[in-house]
Every structure is written in structure tokens, then in C-alpha cells.
Amino acid sequence: MLKSSQLGKPGLRLSSFFDDIYHLNEEGVPVFKLFINGEWVESKTGETFPVDTPIDDSVVAYAQKGGDLDVDAAVNASRDARPKIRSIAAIDRIEIFHDAAKIIEERLEDFVNVLMLEAGKPRADAVGEITAVIERMKMTMEDVSKVGGEYRPGDWSADTMGKVAIVLREPVGTVGAIGPFNYPLYIPAAKIIPALLSGNTVVVKPASDTPLSQLLLAKALEEAGVPKGALNVVTGPGRVGARIAAHEDVGMVSFTGSTEVGREIARIAANKRLHLELGGKAYAIVLDDADISLAANRCVAGSLRNAGQRCDAVSAILVVQSVADEFVEKVLAEVDKIKYGDPRVEGVNMGPLINRAAAERVNALVKDAVAKGAKLLRGGSYRGCYHEPTVLDRVPLDARILWEETFGPVVTIVRVVDENEAIAIASRSRYGLDSCVFTNNFYRMWRVAKSLQVGAVTINDFPRHGVGYFPFGGVKDSGLGREGIGYSIEEMMVLKTIVFNLEPAQLGKVRRPKEKHH
To answer: Catalytic positions, please?
Structure first.
């Protein structure tokens, strides 16, 4: 584990652009505010909560502990702002996002510092996440193709003869956007962008572990010209998200997080549109005709990127026995290249998990697998929030790590007889978000891809949702709906049919007279 005593205690400092979103307390620690109705305000609860950095568990900031009154104020502001956002020409909404992208680019270091501190991301990972937000904003024109309507002539049916209809797509109203800790800037942004672009207003609830980056994003969007009240951010505990989901003036809830929380949101969000991207268990299937070097490289990257804290992470590898020894040897060589530790240290490419509880949970899964017969080939230990990159081979089918979402830096290898056994194992999972298969035979990759019960299958690479140019989403316990450029915006709009009766003006078509046959 790499660390540096020269770096000192982590501390958060921002440029003057962000002065109005926080103040410094007596100890010089930033205390951030809520963003409600275009104003930066303190919570009506009068309480705050500490934001710890997983780098060393120290407090780097405080955030407002929002409550029911704050949520109500935010939703009310969003409701009242609906005419404002809808009155802005669509091309001007696109320009707002282009302007916001420029603002973020100009203040890149502020965003990098926040992501490194609140989420423990190495610099390259932080820059990558910010770049994805910028790219998503610049690609808003790609969403336009899904916002059109259609003309329906009624004379194709005797029931609607003499009528025509125009089918429009309109915003649902207010979208509740509830984000996770693993990509705290990008994932909520990927909800906010299509919501505002389609004329909705938004109330955002960031993850409590990582609430700060969303406040910086809100400031950038405010500066870019998002109307007052159209975007609101309420930080706080889980009950803030529950209040948003249950509120009668919220028309849709878009949530990314655990399956358990997603089920609760589905229960309380009665009569609302739902998008739920929940837990994942991406099985990688490595067949005997695969490029083994490529498969090992991609599987390790898919397992360890962002310390494994990804819903689309490769969290179990099913490799055919005849190539398993070669595959494992190459996996170990790839894992040995990983430099993990303090993300501020140059060269580190894997930082800590989000908190101590996460590290403890991942290690419990590793210990369970070893106790049941798995071979521990690398790692296996943790300290604080840091868990070693770990490799488990010959993992038995009764190990918890084979079925539970890992969300940690573990390469889990199961040896199988053939692709049929691999498909059978993957099909037993309660999750269905992503999978991948490594083979150079088109017919085998097609058979496996068609057999897997998941939202997306990647061939000869690890799954990655990226900026959402390809649609993604789950089946089974991995959620409802699809996200992506041109897909999220469609989920955030509803159809309205306007029917015109043309008969009074004799403009409608009439049926031909039927001749009598003798």
C-alpha cells in the first residue's frame, strides 16, 4: 500500500467561484449549504453532518442535514418553476449545458479535489468522471431525436374515421434524482441533464457519503442559466430520499443504488414513473477459444476499476477448465501491476473503499470463500478503508461472494467444465444488469449472449456504461427502465394525444359506398 507522510492531512479548499455555497466554521472546515429555489441556504433542521474522507477517515467538510421541511420547500420550488424551464426554447436548454460544460472545464481542479477527498478516487479516475459529465453535456443534441411527436391519420380505422391526432411528448413534471456514492458526480448528472433538457424540474438527493460534488455541479448549472427553482439539491440521510420519492408533486423517481433501497422506493413511490438501476453481479465467461491475454487484462480491469465499486463491475469470472491455469497466471500478472493506496500519491491507480464498513463487508466475503475452499492467491487483507487487490481461485458454488454484489477489489474465479455450466451458474443469479463473454467464435458468443438474462452483454471486453451512448439497465433484481443518451429522456416524458374532429368542416375522409352484390 502506497502512502506519503509528505502530503499531510487532507483538506478541502475551493476557488472563489464557489464562495456562496459554503462557509468556514471555527476550525476552518467548510460547511456546505443546500440549494433550494435558486438560493444557497442552511437546513431548517439547523443540523449538519460530517463528510469523512476515506483517505484517512478525517472530516474534510460538513453538509446540511436536510429534513422534511427542506424537501417540501425544494419540491414546491420545483413545482412552481415548471413553467420557467418549459418556456425556455429547447435549443437554449442545450446551450445552457454547453455553457455549464465550459464552467466545469475552467474549474476542473475544484471538482478533482472534491472527488479525490469525498470518494477517495485517484486523480486519473476523478478526471475521468468529470470528463464524462462534460462529454454528456456536450452530447445533449443527441437526445433530441427522442423528443419528437407524430401525426396519426384516423382513416386507417373505422372507429376514428374523420379524425386525425397529434401525439406529443411532454415532461412528467418534477423528477426526483437519487444518486449513489460510487460515481457521485456523473450518475446524478446523467439524471439531471435529460430531466432539465426535456423540460422537467429536478430535486436531487446525493449520497450521504459523497454529497459535495453535486453541490459544485449545481453551482455550475446555476451560473450557466438554469432557472431559479428548476434544480434543487437537498443533502441529508436516507429519509430525505424517501420523502422525495413519496411526495405527491414528484412525477418520476430515478434512483441508482442497492436493490433493497430500490424496492423500498418502489413501494412508497405510488403512481409515479420509476427508473431504478439497482445491484449488479456481472459474470464474465471465458471460453476455451478466447484470447486469454485479452480476457485476463479486461477481467482484471473490470474487477478492480474504481476499487470494484461499480454496479457493472466484473464480480465473478467463469473460466473453462482447459484454459484456466493459463488464465489465472495472466490474471496474477495483471493484478501485480496495480498500485493501491492514498489516491493523492502519484502512480496510485486504486484508492480506498468508501468507508470502513465497506472494507469490512468485502473482507467478510473473502474470508467466507476461503473458509469454504477457495484458494487465496493475492491480497485478502484490509486496513481502515483500504482493501488489498485480491484474487480468489477455485471458488466453490456455495461461497457468498459468487452470489452477493461484491462492490470491492476482488477477482473471483470459478472453473467450469464448459459454456453450458457457465450459463447455468450465471442464470441462477438474482441480478441481471451486465455480463460479458470472451470467445472468438461468433456462434458461441451469440448463443451465450442470447442465453444470459441481463440488460446488456459485452463481447471481448468488460461492461462499462460510460456516458451512456449505448442504453443500459437491468432485469430481475437489477432494476427497471433504461438510461442512456436518447433513452433517459424518453423515460422522463409522457405521451399526450390531441385528437381533431375534422367532420364539422368536412375535411375528414369518407368511406366509399358499398355496392350491393346480386
So the answer is: 277, 311
